[in-house]
Specification:
The complex is a heterodimer of chains A (about 450) and B (about 270). With about 450 residues, chain A is an alpha/beta fold. Chain A has 2 domains: about 10-290, Aspartate Aminotransferase, domain 2 (3-Layer(aba) Sandwich); about 295-435, Aspartate Aminotransferase, domain 1, CATH 3.90.1150.10. Chain A has helices spanning about 10-15, 40-50, 65-75, 90-100, 115-125, 140-145, 170-175, 190-195, 230-235, 240, 250-255, 260-270, 280-290, 290-310, 330-335, 350-360, 390-395, 410-435; strands at about 80-85, 105-110, 130-135, 150-155, 180-185, 205, 220-225, 315-320, 340-345, 365, 375, 400-405. Chain B has about 270 residues and is of the alpha/beta class. Chain B has one domain: 3-Layer(aba) Sandwich (Rossmann fold). Helix content of chain B is about 45%, strand content about 15%. Chain B has an 8-stranded mixed β-sheet with strand order 1-2-4-3-5-6-7-8, sandwiched between helices. The longest helix of chain B has 16 residues, at about 250-265. The radius of gyration of chain B is 17 Å and the shape is globular. Classes of the chains: A alpha/beta (about 450), B alpha/beta (about 270). Chains A and B meet through helix 3, strand 1 and helix 11 of A and helix 1, helix 5, helix 7 and helix 12 of B.
Chain lengths: ~450, ~270
């Protein structure tokens, strides 16, 4: 098992990457709200620019507050290093951008976040990077989709919003047999519920905005370099194993080995694209991270209670959560429960679903997940509205699907709120029945 | 760069610049189970400040092919053959932990080609608990974890990193778990000539530098002080760091290394 810290996860979340600084003894991680850093001398400046010395130059590339969050997340996931970015989407972009060039190819799970589909299917296409979407747990389909120019296999550990759990060990086996790394968006799982690197993943991405931040106050992302993939042996990654001219021909694999990808992202993407996390956002996200483990326990407990409650409601047509009739790999990968997202449909279809959402008072109808508060959304008309009918089906999204990010409120209050919604939905369903006369 | 030593493909890091054997050459030698990457920052500084850098991965380590060498004496002799293969004339030898034992053996063979030796977080003898060697034989990843938990100082156990965003423990674990750690540890344990070699160098007037780590639990600094005495020099101790000194305190260790070598060059 790969380890990056000998501290327990609860301790890492609170302490890793920062000890009280010597000048003032600040117990909390200070916010280094600065664009730049004074050099001791011209020689030191030169050394920093030439990667002869670690340290900070400009906050687009590194920042001390952001670095604490990076080191903490790398330790929690068991990675070799991490790069925080402005958002989860920018974390995905810099990962794909660092591994792929024009003419390359990605194999992706079909059941993923709508914006990621758009990135893979349309945006990267403009850079001549193609993507094939597959049922990621169909290993024959996955193996068959890998081409000579394939650079990575991408999946979400829990798909958004279909909630299919990716069988990471099987996916990694299939990909690794052909010298391909596996990139996993683990946003829905969080480091508390599952660590993909321990199950074969090579790169982990999070939208830190979600449960890790947990309070809906800051947007951010992270790429965690697992450090286990042999980029040289694969023979497919010139961006990591060939000289990089802008840094005097630096060869990232030779110089940094297990942290080659993280350093490439740092040296190229953060410099040239500049999707940097702000220090203030890093501070806010660190506050969330400190209590992630405690909050996730409550999230999962509440989600399981809501699943059981919804299954008993007459107005509910169906309920989906990965723990319902969980298959073997879900039980293995998520022994503490497979997250706090659930989906369901109400009798009466899309219109009844809309009535449900509009009637809610405690829960919020918005385009986010992982807030401490309960959130609901109709993906078909929002986050996934740009997908075709075919893509919606492939993503596991039906017209009546309501996505719920179960919060940490007192569960009886969430149930009371959903009761309001279900009564409104039932009225619509009853009216529909009256209209059709059936 | 890759060179051929004993008919084996051998990787030598050069600090990001083409190797020039005509420049004064700084040889950086890694410790047990590790590789050239432990010297990444120091290597780049020397390479871009008038020196050639020669930081090999020992046989069967990381990017180098071949069979792992089973004794420190064999490693020292191999290093001299590697330097010959690269047509290196005069060298400053710098070794971390086991790497300095290798330097001691090579130093005697290099004779007048040797300009100086620098010892970092090491001792003239490095006895290894047999249980650790046995663990390294059976489960290299576990042995690597044991060494990293013991090897890094307090700050790094709490997630500090000289390079923002990185996790040195995680990086070290990946490297050590895939290298012939058990063979290295056994070689260290069997080596007993260090004190004699160090005294020999001192008697020949070899310039030497000893850099120790205040929190070193693998080669405790009291043993480092004895080595300094054998070499006829004084040790400098870097505070708040453990045995993984080159990675834990690259800036401070480089400062001492370059001051020492620059002074000699002048």
């Amino acid at each position: 098992m790969s380890k990056s810290s000998f501290l327990g996860a609860d301790t890492i979340a609170l302490h890793s990457g920062y000890q009280p600084e010597s000048d003032h003894g600040s117990r909390a991680v200070p916010i280094y709200q600065t664009t730049s850093y004074v050099f001791d001398s011209v020689d030191e400046a030169s050394a920093l620019f030439n990667v002869e010395q670690g340290g900070h130059i400009y906050s687009r590339i590194t920042n001390p507050t952001v670095a604490v969050l990076e080191q903490r997340l790398a330790a929690l996931e068991g990675g070799a290093g991490a790069i925080c970015t402005a958002s989860g989407m920018s974390a995905l972009f810099v990962t794909f951008f660092s591994l792929c060039s024009a003419g390359d190819h990605i194999v992706s799970a079909a059941q993923i976040y709508g914006s990621t589909v758009t990135l893979l299917k349309h945006t990267l296409k403009r850079f001549n990077i193609d993507c094939t979407f597959v049922d990621i747990n169909d290993q024959d389909a996955l193996a068959g989709a890998i081409q000579d120019n394939t650079k990575l296999v991408f999946c979400e550990s829990i798909g958004n919003p279909g909630l299919a759990v990716s069988n990471l060990p099987a996916i990694a086996d299939t990909a690794h047999q052909q010298g391909i790394p596996v990139v996993v968006d683990a946003t829905f799982a969080t480091p508390y519920l599952n660590n993909p690197i321990q199950h074969g993943a090579d790169v982990v991405v999070h939208s830190v905005t979600k449960w890790i931040g947990g309070h809906g106050v800051a947007v951010g992302g992270v790429v965690i370099d697992g450090g286990n993939f042999d980029w040289l042996k694969s023979g497919r990654f010139p961006t990591l194993t060939q000289p990089y001219e802008p840094f005097h021909g630096m060869n990232f694999w030779e110089e940094f080995g297990p942290a080659a990808l993280a350093m490439r992202i740092r040296c190229e993407s953060m410099r040239d694209i500049g999707a940097a996390m702000t220090p203030h956002n890093a501070f806010l996200l660190l506050q969330g991270l400190e209590t992630l483990n405690l909050r996730m326990q409550q999230h999962v407990t509440n989600a399981q209670a809501m699943v059981a409650w919804l299954q008993q409601q007459d107005a509910v047509a169906w309920v989906n959560h990965p723990d319902i009739n969980a298959d073997a790999h879900t039980k293995t990968l998520f022994p503490k429960g497979a997250g706090s997202m659930l989906t369901f449909g109400v009798k009466g279809g899309r219109d009844a679903g809309a009535a449900f959402i509009n009637a809610l008072q405690l829960s919020s109808n918005l385009a986010n997940v992982g807030d401490s508060r309960t959130l609901v959304l109709h993906p078909g008309s929002t986050t996934h509205s740009r997908l075709s009918e075919t893509d919606l089906v492939a993503a596991g999204i039906s017209a009546d699907l309501i996505r719920v990010s179960v919060g940490i409120e007192t569960v009886k209050d969430i149930q009371a709120d959903f009761g309001l919604g279900l009564r409104a939905a039932a009225k619509v369903a009853t009216a529909q029945l009256a209209q059709t006369g059936t | 760069m890759y060179i051929t030593v004993d008919n084996q493909h051998t990787f030598v890091a050069t600090g990001g610049k083409p190797f020039n054997p005509n420049l004064p050459t700084v040889v950086l030698l890694h410790g047990s189970g590790t590789d050239h990457r432990g010297w990444a920052l120091q290597a780049r500084w020397f390479a871009f400040h008038g020196y050639s850098v020669f930081a090999p991965d020992m046989p069967a380590h990381s990017l180098s092919a071949g069979e792992a060498l089973t004794s420190i004496e064999a490693m020292g002799a191999w290093l001299v053959r590697a330097l010959d293969a690269a047509k290196v004339s005069n060298v400053h030898l710098i070794g971390h932990s086991q790497g300095f034992l290798v330097a001691l053996e090579a130093a005697v063979l290099l004779s007048k080609r040797l300009l100086s030796v620098t010892a970092m977080a090491t001792a003239s003898a490095i006895p290894v608990n047999p249980a650790l060697i046995e663990t390294a034989q059976k489960d290299p990843a576990l042995a690597a974890q044991m060494m990293l938990q013991w090897g890094f100082g307090n700050r790094h156990q709490y997630g500090a990193s000289a390079v923002p965003g990185m996790q040195p423990i995680g990086i070290g674990q990946r490297i050590m778990a895939n290298n012939p750690l058990a063979i290295d540890l056994a070689a260290c344990n069997a080596y007993t000539a260090g004190s004699k070699r160090a005294q020999q160098l001192a008697s020949e007037g070899c310039a030497s530098c000893v850099i120790l780590a205040a929190q070193d639990r693998m080669t405790p600094k009291k043993e480092g002080f004895k080595l300094a005495q054998d070499l006829g020099t004084h040790a400098q101790v870097i505070a708040d760091t453990g045995h993984m000194l080159p990675m834990e305190a690259p800036k401070q260790s480089l400062s001492i290394m370059k001051t020492f070598i620059q002074t000699l060059e002048k």
